[in-house]
Amino acid sequence: MPQCRLLLAAVALLGAVAAAVAQQPLASPSDLAGLYSLRASLGLRAREWPARADPCTAWAGVMCRAGRVVGVSVAGFRRTRLASRAPAFAVDGLRNLTALELFNASGFPLPGEVPAWFSRDLPQPLAVLDLRYAAVNGTLPPDLGSSGNLTRLLLSGNSLSGQVPETLLSVKGLRVLDLSTNNFTGELPSVSVGAGDVAASLFNISGNSLYGVATDAIGALKTRFRLVDVSSNYLDGNWNGSDATVDVSVNCFSGVSGQRRHVDCEDFYRREGVRLVDIPVPAPLPQPSPEKSRGISKNVLIGVLAAAAALMVMFLVALLFCLMRRRQRGGGRGAETNEEGARGMRRRDSSVNPVASSPAAVSPRADATPKDAITVFGELTYEQLVHATGGFGDDNLLKHGHSGDIYHGVLENGAHVIVKKIGTKSINKVSSELDFYSRYSHERIVPLLGHLANNDEEFLSYKYMPKADLTNALHKKPVDTEDGLHSLDWITRLKIATGVAEAMCFLHDECSPPFVHRDIQASSVLLDDKFEVRLGSMSNICAQQSAGSQNVFSRILRSSKSLDKNTSGPPATCSYDVYCFGKVILELVTGNFGVSGSNDAGSEEWLANTTNRISISDKDSITNIIDPLLVVDEDHLEEVWAVAIVAKTCLNSKPSRRPSARYVLKALENPLRVVRAGSRSNSARLRSSSSRSSWQSTFLQGSRYQSYEVMSPSGRMLDRRGSVRSHISGGEASSSFKRSLREIAPDPQVLDEDVAV
């Protein structure tokens, strides 16, 4: 026992000493000068690197050990407003950081060429150099990395050009080399067999313009790297496609599938002034003599005509028989039944492609381009997820979601992913999400990359979205500060709203049975680098509650019920998704952030007051609620007005009067037709058009009724003048019941033949 206590005391003492060493202030004047030089040349803000503060303890992204700087990361930082006017690749301060082991500037703009001194004057201990998506251009220095001990060099997503230096592949200890998605040209760099002293992990040069015969060069690369990716180039030669460790897709190889068209390869090689290796062409078959050929052709022609005539007669007989049988049955089906059948046929013929593999193998779109796809070799293990997320530490924690904690991770091959860690209390929510992903994939749904169960926890990995979610994209700070953000312009906001509507249309109309998201809000609208929408937060998704057995009177009674939110839990109805989407649209129009994710009394009161200010007959009414930072001209102001009317119709207090997702998408694609149709039609014409279920009349009538009926948090109705009246008053209840079949907006389930989105 005394020996054990002595051993424990020694371990605790060593831990305390290590912690004290790690938390030591910066002690090197050279390192301090280098950091301040970087702060000035990169134009970093005082928020991340405050002046008159110790860099080791107060500067974000600075890692120290024993009073020396060993790591610098400016990933995700932004320059000051003055420095952003003339950004440049100016990192001369790195020369003073002689103990530096890591420099990460991924996503931080460094426009310009890689400095020539990167060849010889990089810090000797430097092991990781990460410059992904940093706007770097020009050519690489010929001896890049020869002065350091690089193990990872990540340069993907830039505009680098020229040839890849062959000396780069001979750097000893280099394990990961990612040069993908650049403008490199020339032949594939060769590497001598036995170069380097370790078995490297990855060589990725996909998405460039390399050309030439590359069979031998790829063979040499396989001896140096375990995984080789040369896809999306113009490499030539013969290749055996049985090697799973090499990706040669979208090239000009012969003997393997998935290559470019031969004519495209010829055009590229012609422009480069080099020769494409000829692909063997089968010898032509011997042609028969002319006289015999004419005789055979005549006989074949007679046979084809006879067969066609017989088929035509059989077809006409079958058609006549079907028409007679249908007439005998009386044709008792109405227009609604025919329309339901048409909609069912459209649903069966939709473009949904069920995924036959397990959820762990679900990929993004099947037709995604190589640059849009994420290269993930094999299935992810628990150890890889722990390493990618930094041990699921707080530095990588993005937020606490409804069903688990959300982390940002970087895989070993440099790909960014999002990992959701689900505890035992929320595991039951995973099954419905995995069931959806195992059957469907769509360009507007965030791709699921993998699923892993470990003991009592489960992990889901998703594709990383560079612009995060709509809440972050819309979040603005005071414009008079140096750190202020520009507001999203109206074109981008309308594009985002249309993308969410497309996702809803896929879930409601193209899936069988229809799926309901039940959590549409700004935080679940994810955005890629081009502000394209990917709908996330799929933990609450489920199939829509069946309404096939409900009769007309059930739908009438349902139309007089209160808001869906009064039921227990999120309702599994498409109208609830439309209601939540209306709040997102109103958030885009007004700039009132957080309203789409809140259901408290204050938010509902704000919704009631805001929707009362939107008038179908007064365009100037929109000026009272529009985002003050949204600068629009007269044409765009009319679009904002129309979109606000769409939002108001989606927020109707009665679910049956809300438009379908298909109608909402049609309106967002043609917003001006919503208001201009209202200005051209009088009330009598509007009443006559209601029976035709046109999508314009849906929003016109829905807006008129909603102008007088807006639900308040107390359960009472607010009319347009702001006066309060009971929601269950006798006059309203009886008149609403009598008008339900004649005057209300068309049921979202009833569609015209010409409204197919």
From TrEMBL:
Gene name of this polypeptide: LOC123052890
GO cellular component: plasma membrane
Protein name per UniProt: Protein kinase domain-containing protein
Broad class of the protein's primary localization: membrane
SUPFAM superfamilies: L domain-like, Protein kinase-like (PK-like)
Biased amino acid composition, Low complexity: 351-364
One GO term of the biological process aspect: signal transduction
A GO molecular-function descriptor: ATP binding
Biased composition annotated in UniProt, kind: Basic and acidic residues: 340-350
Keywords on record: ATP-binding, Glycoprotein, Leucine-rich repeat, Membrane, Nucleotide-binding, Receptor, Repeat, Signal, Transmembrane, Transmembrane helix
Source superkingdom: Eukaryota
Signal peptide coordinates: 1-22
